[in-house]
Design a protein that fits this description.
The complex is a heterodimer of chains A (157) and B (488). By secondary structure, chain A is mostly helical. Chain A is built from 5 helices and no strands. In chain A, helix 1 runs antiparallel to helix 2. Chain A is flat. Helices cover 73% and strands 1% of the residues of chain B. The chains are: A mainly alpha (157), B mainly alpha (488). At the A-B interface, helix 1, helix 2, helix 4 and helix 5 of A face helix 7, helix 8, helix 17, helix 18 and helix 19 of B.
Chain lengths: 157, 488
């Protein structure tokens, strides 16, 4: 469980540098809140958390450096973000962005239609049917059954 | 007794427990959909419910989900959950041999035995631990939380450093908002919205729901199950032969499940290892379809459910990622799990015990009666399932506070969780850190203030406490093991 079983992902050598960013943010917040002045100040624990993050990032970097050349990263950007992950992820974010305007039902329907069509590779009619049934089921179970509020839109409620 | 039987005698609670267990088995049987994901999404819908109703559904999903993972492990050689990895080692060869029905029957009965042993351990162990927990000083809670995070960090990811980073990141995220002691804003950067902190339920849904759904898109669709399902209920002599192993494995499951930070997956692997060592002459060799290889992990992973509830209810420390989510839900419902829970709200404890026992009965019923129907579940196409999960994630997150800001938090954590997982940084320590962070911060400051604002004095005081010394020794042991693994 602690062995490096997977091949390195593209950009893995840069990961420690990226991890140092949140570590730096936590350390800076800890210092701002007197973390260095008193161990019981509001900044003490953020400082400690930041220090652990920074130490871990350095350890990850050192481990990555020691294993350099052992295995080369597989693939490029598409290995990190394969087309169907990028497409569905993008559609999901677009649907969330559209929800305040279109409302939940229409935004979810559009997300489902396009995603199902894209992933299953079957006809639009079939995808539309699956999407309509899914949104209807969600409405019945959650809105009517559990009385859960669903996001309303400015254009369509 | 009245509270123990409450969910057995109330038609609505009975129905909710049954529905939760059925949904858990269904979700658990789908490769890639974890119990943590199911519980994360589900708890958000229960915040407006009566507490008992919410607990009934959650217990059912947890129990059913851990068991459901064995279905796809046996039929497709794809574990439905990490807790079913060990089951696939011998369950799938059994199915290939034409004994899929027997493997499902054995896994169901072993899960039931394990589940009931877990419930018994909860009923007997939690009150005893609760009495000890009253003696805990703030520093002991801090040490216990550190131990839990170290265990999760070292066991759930590919390296201790990545686990520690995730846990510390979670702690920092959990401290965002107003400091509860001085009301000083932390990590808010002038944003009024950030003063309320980061909604950890939204983070959970993002990290366990969205991130996992996106990861599932990286894998091809499940193949159709072609195994024939024959006789399901094994003959009594065979059951009697496996019962001692099931009970021993259940003991392992309870013990591992009760350790903060460990869960059913580790319990199942340890029980499998125990079965391999203790069964000197199996009818079929291990790895080629040994029945013991199905019985032991299945008993252990379901026993771990009851075990995981023990530290959650008595100490307020989650046993694993699922109990971390449940703990978060209990906080939202206004409860403070910890040593006083059993004395202040014993009815809630006994309701949970009774409800888990009921969920195990439903597991037995649905597991045996629906063996053939559940075989089809693993074949649900990802093309429909994944977009639907994303939609449900947004519904669940919006339901928490009817806020689109929470939905964006969820999406942000989802994308970050997807990327972090790709680089071997797991989500479980982040969530545990977010939940335990405020508790650790408060415990640390109380300890230091009580010692005159001196860390050295606090350390001297800890050296004079047996509980603290045991916890420090456990932390040192975990670190030592991790260091030895690195050297190996």
């Amino acid at each position: 469980m602690t062995t490096q079983a997977r091949p390195p992902a593209p950009g893995e050598r840069l990961l420690p540098l990226l991890l140092l960013v949140p570590a730096g943010v936590a350390v800076a917040e800890g210092v701002r809140l007197d973390g260095l002045a008193s161990p019981s100040s509001p900044g003490a624990f953020p400082l400690l958390a930041g220090a652990v993050m920074a130490g871990s990032a350095v350890a990850i970097g050192a481990s990555s450096w020691l294993r350099r050349g052992a295995a080369r990263p597989v693939g490029g950007v598409s290995a990190v973000l394969p087309p169907r992950v990028a497409a569905v992820g993008g559609l999901f974010l677009a649907a969330l962005g559209a929800m305040p305007w279109l409302g939940f039902h229409l935004a979810a329907f559009l997300l489902l239609v396009v995603s199902v069509r894209l992933l299953a590779g079957r006809g639009w009619l079939r995808a539309g049917l699956v999407a309509a049934l899914s949104v209807a089921a969600i409405h019945v179970v959650f809105r009517l059954g559990f009385s859960v509020l669903l996001p309303a839109g400015v254009l369509f409620r | 007794m009245e509270h123990f039987l409450l969910s057995w005698t109330s038609p609505s609670l009975l129905l909710l427990t049954a529905a939760g267990t059925l949904a858990g088995i269904w979700i658990g049987a789908i490769p890639g959909l974890s119990v943590t994901m199911a519980v994360s999404i589900l708890v958000s819908f229960t915040f407006s419910w009566d507490l008992n109703a919410a607990l009934a559904v959650i217990a059912g999903v947890f129990t059913g989900g851990v068991y459901g993972g064995s279905r796809s492990a046996i039929l497709l050689n794809i574990p439905g959950s990490p807790a079913a990895i060990a089951t696939a080692l011998d369950g799938y060869p059994m199915a290939r041999r034409g004994e899929a029905g027997a493997a499902i029957g054995l896994s169901t009965l072993a899960s039931f035995v394990g589940g009931m042993v877990g419930v018994l351990a909860l009923a007997l162990g939690a009150p005893a631990l609760g009495e000890v927990a009253i003696l805990f000083a703030p520093r002991d809670y801090l040490l216990l939380a550190v131990l839990g995070l170290l265990l999760v960090g070292s066991l759930s990811g590919e390296s201790l450093a990545k686990g520690l980073f995730a846990a510390a990141l979670g702690i920092a995220l959990g401290m965002a908002g107003l400091d509860p002691m001085t009301a000083e804003p932390r990590f808010s950067y002038g944003s009024v919205q950030m003063l309320g902190g980061i909604p950890y339920i939204a983070a959970m849904i993002g990290l366990f729901g969205v991130a996992e759904a996106l990861h599932q898109l990286r894998a091809p669709d499940a193949v159709r199950a072609t195994q024939r399902i024959g006789g399901i209920i094994p003959p009594w002599p065979r059951l009697r032969r496996h019962l001692p192993l099931a009970l021993r494995a259940s003991g392992i499951g309870v013990g591992i499940g009760a350790l903060p930070g460990t869960g059913g997956d580790i319990a199942a692997l340890m029980a499998y290892d125990h079965a391999r060592r203790s069964t000197t002459q199996p009818e079929t060799p291990f790895g080629e379809g040994a029945e013991e290889g199905v019985v032991a992990p299945e008993a252990a992973n379901n026993a771990a459910v009851g075990g995981a509830y023990v530290p959650m209810l008595t100490l307020g420390i989650p046993g694993d990622a699922v109990t971390a989510v449940i703990l978060g839900a209990l906080f939202v419902h206004g409860l403070r799990p910890g040593p006083l829970l059993l004395t202040e709200t014993p009815h809630l404890f006994w309701f949970t015990v009774g409800n888990l026992a009921l969920a195990n009965l439903f597991l037995l019923l649905f597991g045996l009666a629906g063996a053939r129907a559940f075989a089809r579940i693993a074949e649900v196409p990802r093309a429909v399932l994944i977009p639907l999960i994303l939609v449900l994630c947004s519904v669940g997150t919006f339901a928490i506070r009817n806020s689109m800001a929470d939905v964006w938090w969820m999406a942000g954590f989802g994308v970050a969780g997807y990327l972090l997982r790709l680089y071997g940084v797991q989500a479980a320590p982040i969530i545990l850190g977010m939940i335990l962070g405020p508790l650790m911060d408060a415990s640390w400051r109380r300890t230091v203030i009580a010692a005159g604002d001196s860390v050295a004095e606090a350390a001297v005081e800890a050296a004079g406490s047996a509980i603290s010394l045991v916890l420090v020794a456990a932390i040192a042991l975990v670190l030592l093991r991790a260091a030895m693994r690195v050297r190996a």
